[in-house]
Write a structure and sequence with these properties.
It is globular, with a radius of gyration of 21 Å. The protein has helices spanning 16-29, 48-60, 72-86, 102-112, 127-136, 155-161, 184-196, 256-266, 272-283, 287-308, 335-346, 372-390; strands at 35-36, 95-98, 118-123, 139-144, 166-172, 200-204, 229-234, 247-250, 323-324, 348-349, 351-352, 364-367. By secondary structure, the protein is of the alpha/beta class. The structure holds pyridoxal-5'-phosphate. Pyridoxal-5'-phosphate binds at residues 40, 100-102, 126, 172, 176, 204, 206, 234, 236, 242, 247.
Length: 391
């Protein structure tokens, strides 16, 4: 018997990374060797002090329900970390702690968008943005990010897409999947447009600690933006805590209250022991964050230099996050064809650029959150695949 779904389910997308992972694992089960460059998560273990804090919390009895918006100590630590790293002035009651950063997207779209609204989102960009905008009933308006502009959005193009219907603009810097970063002058110009059109900005800053040059700038610091910016951040990428599920949002005005209500209606609260681990992550030693960043920088240089040595492929240097987004148009294959070929014939799991939107055609996303040995193995295999299709 097939169960009939509510029509809204037809509007829900997904994340291809998890599908490619399943296909790669099936090949491995047949005895094939696969290098995994598909999933966007640090390969490092969570630092020991954080693991210990989580384990200790469980032993100490942090095993009950807690406040929907998060533990007061953690909300305070988050506000102070964000204010210290960005120069903002959020108060702890503007913070809602969530099981991962992803629920912030889900809750924001449910709370703010409906039929008749438009929401502008980056293309290529994190696939859940478009999926959740569609789910809310609003119209998604992709803004292309182009290689010739270092994958920053074009301000004139953004201006042309904004109208009275625009309710929300999603930004992601440093960005998944391109590694692109919005410069201070980009953010200033975007802020002017957001104020002019009375638009709320969801600023996904989950990769803010994985920036290889300069300092992270949040659009929340631009004039008129504190009252219209939602910052999304979390522990997954910075502290190698993807499986713990811990993230947060910082909300303008009194938006934290309806978001907390969505928490009550969905998960009640984020796991208490996990929040205690998060408190240790923010308030304990930070040397691992710098160590991870330096390891990612070495891997970035290795993969980008290696890709640029392959005839038929070119790759701009990503300024942040842990993804390379090479141009593969020189192979003569579409993104999907080349990604399938890489996985099935050459044992490299990568994502087609089109998994992140139509403007991703002609690109692949390679996550370099893996060892240098794996990156070298993958580069040799990509070179073989390119020679095979160009022969
Ligand atoms: N935002 C972006 C751009 C991401 O790439 C991810 C994870 O891949 C997330 C948010 C969500 O991360 P999490 O829910 O693990 O905090």
């Amino acid at each position: 018997m097939s169960v009939e779904l509510a029509s809204r389910m037809q509007r829900l997308g997904t994340e291809t990374a998890f599908e490619v992972l399943v296909r790669a694992r099936a090949l491995e089960a047949q005895g094939r060797d696969v290098v995994h460059l598909e999933i966007g998560e640090p390969d490092f273990d969570t630092p020991e002090n954080i693991v210990e804090a989580g384990a200790r919390a469980l032993r100490e009895g942090w095993t009950h329900y807690g406040p929907a918006a998060g533990l007061p100590d953690l909300r305070e630590a988050i506000a102070s970390y964000v204010n210290g790293s960005r120069g903002t002035s959020y108060t702890p009651d503007q913070v809602v702690v969530t099981p991962g950063g992803k629920p912030v997207m889900f809750f924001v779209m449910l709370a703010l968008l409906e039929r008749g609204h438009e929401a502008i989102y980056p293309d290529p960009g994190f696939p859940i943005y478009g999926s959740m905008i569609d789910f809310s009933g609003a119209k998604g308006v992709p803004i292309p990010l182009r290689e010739e502009n270092d994958f920053r959005l074009d301000i004139d193009e953004l201006a042309s897409l904004m109208s009275d219907r625009t309710r929300l603009l999603i930004l992601n810097s440093p960005a998944n999947p391109t590694g692109g970063v919005l410069e201070r002058e980009d953010l200033a110009a975007i802020a002017e447009l957001a104020v002019k059109h009375d638009v709320i900005v969801l600023s996904d800053e989950i990769y803010s600690e994985l920036l290889y040059e300069g300092e992270h700038v949040s659009i929340a610091t631009m004039p008129g933006m504190a009252e219209r910016t939602i910052i999304l951040d979390g522990f997954s990428k910075t502290y190698a805590m993807t499986g713990w599920r811990l993230g947060y949002g910082l909300f303008p005005g009194d938006l934290a209250a309806p978001i907390s209500k969505l928490m009550v209606n969905s998960v009640s609260c984020t796991s208490m022991a996990v929040q205690r681990a998060g408190l240790e992550a923010l308030t304990g030693p930070q040397d691992k964050v710098a160590e991870f960043r330096e390891a990612f920088r070495r891997r970035r240089d290795l993969i980008v230099n290696g890709l640029n040595e392959i005839e038929g492929i070119s790759c701009v240097l990503p300024k942040g996050a842990f993804y390379a987004f090479p141009n593969i148009t020189g192979t003569g294959r579409s993104s999907k064809e080349f990604a399938d070929l890489l996985l099935e014939e050459h044992g490299v799991a990568a994502l087609a650029g089109t998994s992140f939107g139509a403007a991703g055609e002609g690109y692949l996303r390679l996550s370099y959150a893996t060892s240098e040995a794996n990156i070298e193995k993958a580069l040799a295999r990509v070179a073989d695949a390119v020679s095979a299709v160009r022969a």
